[in-house]
Amino acid sequence: MRRRLTALACALLLAAALLAGSYRLGYGQGAADAGALPPGLSAVGQLYRRVQQEALEVPPDARLARGALRGLIEALDDPYAAYYPPSAYRRLNESLEGHFTGVGIVLQQAPEGFRVVSVLDDTPADRAGVRAGERLVSVNGRDVRDEPFEVVVSLVKGRVGTPVVLGLHGDGRRRRVRMRRARIEVPTIQTRPVDDDVAYLRLLQFSRGVGEDVRRAVGRFVDGGARGIVLDVRGNPGGLLAEAVAVAGVFIERGPVVTVRERRGPGRTLKAEGDAFEQVPLVVLVDRGSASASEIVAGAVRDRERGRLVGTRTFGKGTVQLIEPLGGGTGAKFTSAEYLTPTGASIEGEGVHPDRVVRGEGAQVRAARALLGGPVRDGG
Question: Which residues are tagged catalytic?
Answer without folding.
Answer: 292, 303, 317
